[in-house]
Amino acid sequence: MPAIKLTNLTKTYANTSKPAVNHLNLEVNDGEFLCLLGPSGCGKTTILRMIAGIETISAGEITIDNTPVDSVEKGCFVPPEQRHIGLVFQSYALWPHMTVLENVSFGLKIKKVPMAEQQRRTQDVMEKLHIAQLASRYPAQLSGGQQQRVALARMLVLNPKVLLLDEPLSNLDAALRLEMRSELRRIHKAFGTTIIFVSHDQWEAMTLASTIAVMSDGQLQQVGPPNEIYTKPVNRFVAEFIGNPKLNLMPLHNIQSPLSAHLHQRFGQLQNFDCCAIRPEEIILSTTPQADALPMQISSIIPTGGSWIIELKNGEDQLHYSTQRHPQWQTQEQVFCQLPELALHFFTPTGSRQSLTKGQC
Ligand SMILES: Nc1ncnc2c1ncn2[C@@H]1O[C@H](COP(=O)(O)OP(=O)(O)OP(=O)(O)O)[C@@H](O)[C@H]1O
């Protein structure tokens, strides 16, 4: 049974004509850590706000544990406080005049939970988040990462069925972000909470989530485990959005292009396809000619700290190759470039990825 089910979910804000979220269907299973990933303005926050109940829906339905909480057809709307959902925003304002302990226990106090239980639950969650030793401090006396953990504790103490996190790490510096990522993974393991996490940082999504839902322009593009999204993108948008350095795109119908000629020579008629792509780490480079290898010249070698990006040129064609091994080549040197068939992605003019012979991958 999915913890959350979104069916044909649509949101069109007042005074706008284009839906911010458009006929979205998504199931989030109990205990899943799902990341909504997509460029700015694609509708990620709007989805979280609708699940939390702080934004109404325009069409479709949201169910939590099989119970509709917002449905246009059924005319029902469950208010946010009855949805048992915790929402942590990018700016996680803590109560500045309350200590950490008071901040964390505040929600239980409001709910009139008996004092002994309040104390037990507050202590338990503070220990799990490693902030028990900070109990008597005020927010101004905490680091960004510690404040972040207090904000999470404040939500987790209420035992939410679902935790919604809207870019909660975006205010942190790189080192803290890394620390908080492992913290979030640990929290997810310790509490088993269903988490929906919004990010536009693909690296964050790939390293944290058990499932990624890629969005573009209010529409869901693909849902799956991170590795599947990376290796089997359903379309060109997903393929290009995921991956750093970016996917190499090779035009197939440019008579000036040696790459295009090379691919036609190997694969014959490619009139159904618009372009072909390969990830930078999938290219095989060698200094000696190989079967099915294309000569290219190294135009630059860029160290990126622990890995290298090598720019390759042949006429107007350009490819990026990436490696974690110290490159043995020099700039201007000629190398031979193999593009393994299994690593190639072929895209139709509408952008969907298809195999050469068997239709949709
Ligand atoms: N209250 C509102 N009224 C009208 N339009 C809105 C409102 N809130 C958001 N939008 C529009 O809806 C679209 C989706 O916005 P949303 O904030 O959900 O995107 P997002 O993917 O979370 O973006 P970001 O990554 O920048 O936070 C955008 O075009 C935005 O301008």
From TrEMBL:
Keywords carried by this UniProt record: ATP-binding, Cell membrane, Membrane, Nucleotide-binding, Translocase, Transport
GO CC, any one term: ATP-binding cassette (ABC) transporter complex, substrate-binding subunit-containing
Gene3D superfamilies membership: 2.40.50.100, P-loop containing nucleotide triphosphate hydrolases
Source species, domain of life: Bacteria
Keyword Membrane among UniProt keywords: yes
GO molecular function ontology, one term from the record: ATP hydrolysis activity
Domain ABC transporter, first and last residues per copy: 4-242
Name of a matching Pfam family: ABC_tran
Signal peptide: none
Name of the protein described by the UniProt record: Carbohydrate ABC transporter ATP-binding protein (CUT1 family)
